[in-house]
Amino acid sequence: MSSGDPGPSSRKVIAKRTLQNAEEVVKAKKPRATKSKGKEKEQSYGQWPQYFHSLFKVYKALNTVLAFVTSRKQLATTFPSIRSSVENITRQPLDMSQVAELKALLPEIITFAYVPRNQIQVNLSTKSSNEPDFSAFSVSNQSNLGLTKEPEHVLLLEFAESWKGTAGGTRASQNEYLLPATRTPAATKKLVEKRNERYIKAIDELLAATPSTEDPVSLLQAAAREHIPLDPAYIKSNPSVDETMHMSIPNSEDRAPVHNILDDLQEQDWYKDQIVERRTVEAREGQTGSLNPPLSATIRKALQSSRNIVSLYSHQAAAISALDSGKDTTRALVNTNDPITVNSKIPLLRVLEHDARATAIFVYPTKALAQDQKIALENILKTCPGLEHIQVFTYDGDTPTEQRAGIRTGASVIFTNFDMIHAAILPHEELWRSFLKNLRLFVADELHYYSGTFGSHVAQIMRRFRRVCAAIGNHSTRFVSCSATIANPLAHMVNIFGLDPSQIQVVTEDGAPTGMKEYLIWRSPYVDEHDPALGRQSSIGEAVDLMRFFMKRGIRVILFCKIRKVCELAMKTLRTELSSEGRHDILERVQAYRGGYSAEERRRIEHDAFTGHLLGIIATNALELGVDIGALDAVLMLGFPVTLASFRQQAGRAGRRKRDSLAIFIAEGLPIDQYYLNNPSELFDKITDNLIVDLDNEIILEAHLQCAAYEMPVCFEDEIYFGPLLKKICRLKLHQDADGWYHTHNKYLPSPSKHVSIRGIQEDKYVLVDVTKSVVSAKILEEIEISRAIFEVYEGGVFIHQGRPYIVQELHHDSKLVKLVQVDVNWITKQRDFTDVNALQTYRIREIKATPHRAYYGRVEIFCQVFGFYKMRHNVILDVVDVESSPWIHETVGLWIDVPDFVLQLLRDKCIKPAAAIHSAEHAFLNRFTLASDIRTECKAEEKEYLKKESRRKRPARLIMYDPVGHGSGVAAKAFEHTSNILHKAWEAVDNCECERGCAKCILSPLCKEGNVVSSKAGALAILKAILDIKIDPDSIPYETDERALRGHDSIVTVSPLHTQSTQNVLIERDRST
């Protein structure tokens, strides 16, 4: 077992302690003066034991050979291929034990381990004749001739290095791609000298830390025994070689307490002070409550039989009592041990006991969550005498048409979503009239999910719903909601349901018991703390190591990833690591979970998690909501999950059943992650932002008034539901009959709801089919939307599903069919693409108050083109491939603001890239706009702006924001109408922010798809001032000093005003805001 393995170690030898002490000694030493450096080195070198001089000769030979080989474009460096070259230099045999001693001395610098053969391959075995084979150095001639079977693993020997062919000779950032380039002889010589000095320093550290009673040579040799790699094939045939490698996994009930496991974690060889913040939330006893009148004997029996509930917690009793008194309720709690099951289903049972004709609607944001809660209710009803006959159905888009009539007439309870209420229930209210007339309970779970544009649609749907119920004589429906902790639960429920605030009871005090919870912030360590130029370890690698460590100790863990591709990369890495260890017993208990998987696959994974079969899950936020996947012990969050609300929602998934638990935020190298890493109190203490529902959005309101008028004619008295804008919209957009009633406009007929998409236009999808065995036995892997497919599936590219790589063999755009073949490769592909956001036509012009500048609103084109891909391993480009593909072109609407020429020149004079300044100014604008999550901007990509080669693509100097394609939400129009106010708020936020280079309070956006890497706070401030006509002192703009930001070329050109025929008649709108 290598020292990099995060499995438990039973070897606590004095050699290990001494080498660790050596690291501590060097940390405490002050740096030597430069002028005496050479003399001190000579003195220390002369005092070494002779053995270390001999070992130094071996090290220098290895160093020279590896530096030469790696200077030639990613040649693989296996031990057999390097060994003979080193022996030619030293004139003596090279033994594995010597390399192991060097590995023990410099564990962060040297890689000496068996790896899967595919980890050093660059091309498939079916490569064309003109493709180079970079794994040639790793196989013997016999293997090439096919005389022997190639082993599954090869012994890899590598030195970490800070030069990978990038400009300036420095290592790229964690998010930057390293181009394969040939190192110059001078650079190679410098690298060799630097690494030789690292050996001298390590020996000095060892000697300083060794007790006088010990022999440093013996200590090093003893420590080296841990670093002699074992061939996995040998381990597989001799399972007793290392028993710790196959230690049994404790049952979840028998696992050690979290604090003990964390103590063990900090004793591991690979732990390098990654924990930078630790907070503990102590366990809390539960508080019970009582009901008056109490529950009936039958309901008590049902709760005990189905869910082992014998008493109610105080918050449950408070919510049920409020409903008994005739109030609607909303519950907003940080604790998620107690789902909405009890709060809403006990009132339902009481209602059904008194009135067998009563009906109820339960609304959930996802089908999986609805199905989960439907089963829970059915289990209660089965055990409740007198209510066994109650019919419960799911009514969603998957419900067969032939079953729907029976559900309308026979159901007492339906589980549905707002899409179905909008498009299938309200337009056919006459078919649902009996059900709606007897409706006594309407329950909406996960209320925080409904905000922004989608929440604004839902709010209007609820007003339509309440209007229909009132028209048929039902005024007695009670409304219940449940939410994660939000800043404004009362206001949000009022906004969504349109209810009188005095009739709502908010329950926020949580009476449920909780176990102790540990919160950690984790920062990836430097590859070598003595050479920061090597950069930090991969955050994905850190997350996978933590998963392996926890699962081996019986900790059930979920790893949340922000995007699907990272989810699959993490699963692929975990699959590789566990396979190399031979831990197939753990691997078979880990699954990835994300959007795109088939419903059947997601249900299977959910079932495996709920039953306790799964030890680990790697998921996107698809599992952030409350689908019951059983008791989890730990949550890992790879990168900041966009919002504080999501951070707390994800953290709350662990510890759901009174056990102690753990939540770890693993910071990536992105600026937004670094901000929270340096300001941890904001993660834990800051109040979440208010949820926004835009009830004054005229585009959304008109759409739902057209639907409402179809359900039954609208009159001005309906202002009590739809607000004061109703009269204006009715007069301008609807048809009025002779009696004064307003009806749906003809363009929306015959089915208005089909013209109103509350989630945006549903895209066509490509079907991904696995044809590995044959076309005849092909099976569907998943479906993927067109907007994703263009970036993720292209011929020759790697697509990952459940951590298994597939090559795109054929891509048929006409039939939207993608044929995939499973392969065994350890590289991925990254598309080479660009996206241009172009303003095409001006519809409106608005003054920016008290300035000569203008904001524009109109037609915007989104042009996406994939022209090739990189083959990549560990962020290093192995190959560059061109592909031919059709562009993805769509149109939407947006606003834009042209940047004055003079400020562009000011920025260039200060070496600030205008692209970075524009990008940050756009973020500053969006950070001050309440509906920013529903609007997009043209984010600047690091690989374009900081490339050595100048791009021919030049972009106009303008800030541009637009509605997502297909949404038609009117959010961009809303931003346009408040441009002056938003710009002033953005300027004040940036100008008053105390940070140096930008933070989440001013220019960093968690929504940036390029990770905020291309940014400039000073540049953003200058642009905002220029647009607002605020005087700029050139001396106040600092020179750009960041080496990375100084690379590349200027990609911004002076903007040309749009000259279209329609612009001639556009009047400039005045800003009359105060």
TrEMBL record:
Keyword Transcription regulation on entry: no
Domain called Helicase C-terminal: residue spans: 545-699
UniProt xrefs under SUPFAM superfamilies: P-loop containing nucleoside triphosphate hydrolases (SSF52540), Winged helix' DNA-binding domain (SSF46785)
GO molecular function: 3'-5' DNA helicase activity; ATP binding; nucleic acid binding
Annotated TM spans: none
Every Helicase ATP-binding domain range: 346-504
PROSITE patterns per UniProt: HELICASE_ATP_BIND_1, HELICASE_CTER
One Gene Ontology term, aspect cellular component: nucleus
GO BP: interstrand cross-link repair; nucleotide-excision repair
Domain of life: Eukaryota
Disordered, as annotated region: 1-42
Keywords: ATP-binding, Helicase, Hydrolase, Nucleotide-binding
Short name of any one Pfam family annotated for the protein: DEAD
The protein's name in its UniProt record: DEAD/H helicase
